[in-house]
From TrEMBL:
Domain YjeF N-terminal: 9-221
Gene (name only): nnr
Reactions this protein catalyses: (6R)-NADHX = (6S)-NADHX; (6S)-NADHX + ADP = AMP + phosphate + NADH + H(+); (6S)-NADPHX + ADP = AMP + phosphate + NADPH + H(+); (6R)-NADPHX = (6S)-NADPHX
Role of this protein: Catalyzes the dehydration of the S-form of NAD(P)HX at the expense of ADP, which is converted to AMP. Together with NAD(P)HX epimerase, which catalyzes the epimerization of the S- and R-forms, the enzyme allows the repair of both epimers of NAD(P)HX, a damaged form of NAD(P)H that is a result of enzymatic or heat-dependent hydration. Bifunctional enzyme that catalyzes the epimerization of the S- and R-forms of NAD(P)HX and the dehydration of the S-form of NAD(P)HX at the expense of ADP, which is converted to AMP. This allows the repair of both epimers of NAD(P)HX, a damaged form of NAD(P)H that is a result of enzymatic or heat-dependent hydration.
Source organism of the structure: Luteitalea pratensis
HAMAP family reported in the protein's UniProt record: NADHX_dehydratase (MF_01965), NADHX_epimerase (MF_01966)
Protein name, per record: Bifunctional NAD(P)H-hydrate repair enzyme
Positions of AMP binding: K426, G427, H428, R429, T430, G455
One Pfam entry name: YjeF_N
Cofactor section: K(+); Mg(2+)
Assigned protein family: Belongs to the NnrE/AIBP family. In the N-terminal section; belongs to the NnrE/AIBP family.
GO MF term set: ADP-dependent NAD(P)H-hydrate dehydratase activity; ATP binding; metal ion binding; NAD(P)HX epimerase activity
Length: 528
C-alpha cells in the first residue's frame, strides 16, 4: 500500500477530477460517508449518542459537513461547530455547509477563543467528537486559538475520530510539532500519509482506517515523486510460492554464513538456524577455527568450516580465500565476527572480490564506517543488503544516531541511492530502502524483540529467503515482515520480557505457515 505526501494526494485528487471526470463533490461525499461507515463499525449504539462535529474552513471541514449531514438521521444530536470564520468557507465545503443549513442543522461559528470557551461545555457533553478542523492542508504547527482548542479536547477524555489527519499533525512528517489532536481513530482518505505510519506522529492517530473514496489505485501508483509503501500481509502472501512436490534441496539456495568469534558463537548459530528456518536448502557456517567445534555441536543441520584466526579467536585476512572458494548462492557476513584489526581487513577483502549477493550485518558493517562506505557499493549480479541498526547507520553515514532517528526515511534512502545497495534500517518500523530510492515500511514486530541476537536472526532470515527468491528487495521485505511476525506470535505466548532470539527461530515456522495457509484458504488480497 503506497504512502503519499500531501502534494501527491492533491495530484491524485486533481487527476481523478480533471482527467477521469469524477466531480470533486463526489469525492467529498464519498469521504464523508466512508468516515461515517467507520464510526458505525467502531462505536456501537451510535443511535443513542451525541456527536459533535468540529469543522475547519477548508475541505477537511467540507468532509465534516457531509459527515454531519449523514449522521443527522442516525444519531440523537449532531451539533456542528465551524472553527474559524464562517465567511471563509468556500467551494465544495461551502456547498455542503449550505446543504446542512437547509436541513436545519445547528451550526455554530467559533471565531475566537472566547467563543470556544463559551461552547466547550456543550461539546464536552457529547459522546464523540469528529475532528474535521485541518487535514492535509495544514502548513505549519498550530498557533492562535488552535492550541487551546486541541489542549481542551485532549484533556476532555472524549473519543475523537479524526478525518484524514488529526488536526495539528503535518501529513508529511513523523514529527509532532506543537499541539495535535489525540485521536482514538483516524480515517484517512485514499492512502495513508507518513504521519499515520511512523512514530511519534503515528501514535497520535490511534487506530488507522484507510477509506476508499473512489480514487483508483492505478492513479495512486503512477504518481511522480517519492515512492514509499507499507509492507502488507497481502503482498507478502503473494510472494510465498508453494514448493514443487519434486523439489530438491539444491533449489532452495546454498547459504554461507560468515560469522562468530570466540565468545560469540551464538550469533553464528542464530543466523544459520534462521536461514534454515526460512527454507534455505543448504547452510554452511564459516567461523574461526577454535569456534568451529562449538558450533558443530550446537546443531546437526548446518555444515561448518574453520577459518584462520588470531589469538583472540577472530578471523584474519588469511580467511578471505577460504570464504571465496566456498560454493554458495548468497553470503551473510557479520554476526559476532568481533571488532579486531584483522576482521576489518578480512571483511574488506571479501567485499572487494565476492561474486555472489551478500547480506552484511553488525561487525561486518562497522568495517565500512566513514570513507570505507564506498567499498559497499552493489554492482550487476552482486546485490548488497546491509542491515544496520540506527547506531551502525550513523557510523556508515558519518553522523549521529539522533540524526538518523530524526529522519529514518532520509537516512536509509540517501545511503541506498548513493551506494546502490539495499538498506534494512532496523528499529521500530524497520525500513527497507532500495537502490532506486523506494522505501518499504514494516509494521510487524514489538519491543520484546529488543534483546540480544534478534538482529543475527534477521540476517539469517533475509539470506535464507534470498537463496529462494533470488531478489534482494523481495527477500529483505519478506525477511523483515516474517521476523517481526514471528516476534509478534512469540510475544503473544510469552510476553515481552521473556522473549529471546531463539524464540524467533521457534515461531518463524508459524509465521510462514499463517501466511501460506491464508494464501490457500483465502486467496484474496485482504489486508488488515
Ligand atoms: N484526498 C482527497 O482526495 C480528498 C480530500 N478531501 C479533504 O480535503 C482535505 C484537504 O483540504 P484543504 O482545503 O486543502 O486543507 P484543510 O481542510 O486541511 O485546511 C486548510 C485550511 O487551513 C488553512 N491553514 C493552513 N495551515 C494553517 C495553520 N497553521 N493555521 C491556520 N490555518 C491554516 C489553509 O489556508 C486552508 O484554508 C483533506 O485532508 C481531506 O479531508 C476532500 O474532501 C475529498 C477528496
Ligand atoms: K482532521
Amino acid at each position: 500500500m503506497r504512502v503519499l505526501t500531501a502534494a501527491q494526494m492533491r495530484e491524485a485528487d486533481r487527476i481523478t477530477i480533471e482527467e477521469l471526470g469524477i466531480p470533486s463533490l463526489v469525492l467529498m461525499e464519498n469521504a464523508g460517508r466512508q468516515v461515517v461507515a467507520a464510526i458505525e463499525a467502531l462505536f456501537p449504539n451510535l443511535e443513542s449518542r451525541r456527536v459533535a462535529v468540529l469543522a475547519g474552513r477548508g475541505n477537511n471541514g467540507g468532509d465534516g459537513f457531509v459527515i454531519a449531514r449523514t449522521l443527522l438521521e442516525r444519531v440523537v444530536e449532531v451539533p456542528v461547530f465551524v472553527i474559524g470564520s464562517l465567511s471563509e468557507v468556500r467551494g465544495d465545503a461551502r456547498h455542503n455547509l449550505e446543504v446542512l443549513g437547509r436541513l436545519g442543522a445547528s451550526v455554530v461559528e467559533i471565531a475566537d477563543e472566547q467563543a470556544w470557551e463559551l461552547h466547550f461545555s456543550e461539546i464536552s457533553q457529547c459522546d464523540l467528537v469528529v475532528d474535521a478542523i485541518f487535514g492535509t492542508g495544514l502548513r505549519q504547527a498550530l498557533d492562535g486559538m488552535y492550541p487551546t482548542i486541541v489542549g481542551d479536547l485532549n484533556g476532555s477524555g472524549l473519543p475523537v475520530v479524526a478525518v484524514d489527519v488529526p488536526s495539528g499533525l503535518l501529513a508529511d512528517t513523523h514529527e509532532v510539532q506543537g499541539e495535535a489532536i489525540r485521536a482514538a481513530v483516524t480515517v484517512t482518505l485514499a492512502a495513508p500519509k507518513i504521519c499515520h505510519i511512523l512514530p511519534p506522529a503515528q501514535r497520535v492517530c490511534g487506530e488507522l482506517v484507510v477509506a476508499d473514496i473512489g480514487i483508483p489505485e492505478a492513479i495512486i501508483e503512477r504518481l511522480d515523486g517519492p515512492y514509499v509503501e507499507v509492507i502488507t500481509r497481502g503482498v507478502m502472501r503473494s510472494v510465498l510460492e508453494p514448493r514443487d512436490p519434486e523439489a530438491h534441496k539444491g533449489e532452495f539456495g546454498r547459504v554461507l554464513i560468515v560469522a562468530g568469534s570466540m565468545g560469540k558463537s551464538g550469533a553464528a548459530h542464530l543466523a544459520a538456524m534462521a536461514a534454515l528456518r526460512s527454507g534455505a536448502g543448504l547452510v554452511t557456517v564459516a567461523t574461526p577455527r577454535s569456534v568451529q567445534p562449538i558450533l558443530a555441536a550446537m546443531a546437526p543441520e548446518y555444515m561448518t568450516i574453520g577459518l584462520p584466526e588470531d589469538a583472540d579467536g577472530q578471523v584474519t585476512p588469511d580467511a578471505i580465500e577460504r570464504v571465496l572458494d566456498t560454493a554458495s548462492d548468497v553470503i551473510a557476513m557479520g554476526p559476532g565476527l568481533g571488532t579486531g584489526p584483522g576482521v576489518r581487513a578480512f571483511v574488506h577483502g571479501v567485499m572487494e572480490r565476492v561474486g555472489v549477493p551478500i547480506v552484511l550485518d553488525a561487525d561486518a558493517l562497522n568495517a565500512f564506517a566513514g570513507e570505507h562506505a564506498r567499498l559497499l557499493a552493489g554492482r550487476d549480479g552482486h546485490d548488497v543488503i546491509i542491515t544496520p541498526h540506527p547506531g551502525e547507520m550513523a557510523r556508515l553515514l558519518g553522523t549521529t544516531t539522533e540524526d538518523v532517528q530524526r529522519d529514518r526515511v532520509a537516512a536509509a534512502r540517501t545511503f541506498a541511492e548513493k551506494h546502490q545497495l539495499h538498506v534494512v534500517l532496523k528499529g521500530h518500523r524497520t525500513l527497507v530502502a532500495a537502490p532506486e530510492g523506494t522505501i518499504a515500511i514494516n509494521m510487524t514486530g514489538n519491543p520484546g524483540m529488543a534483546t540480544g541476537g534478534t538482529g543475527d536472526v534477521l540476517t539469517g532470515v533475509i539470506a535464507g529467503w534470498f537463496g529462494q527468491l533470488l531478489d534482494a528487495e523481495g527477500a529483505s521485505r519478506l525477511g523483515v515482515y516474517l521476523h517481526g511476525h514471528a516476534g509478534d506470535l512469540a510475544m503473544a505466548d510469552l510476553g515481552e520480557a521473556a522473549l529471546t532470539a531463539s524464540d524467533l527461530l521457534t515461531y518463524l515456522g508459524d509465521a510462514v505457515l499463517e501466511l501460506s495457509a491464508e494464501r490457500t484458504s483465502k486467496g484474496d488480497d485482504h489486508d488488515e
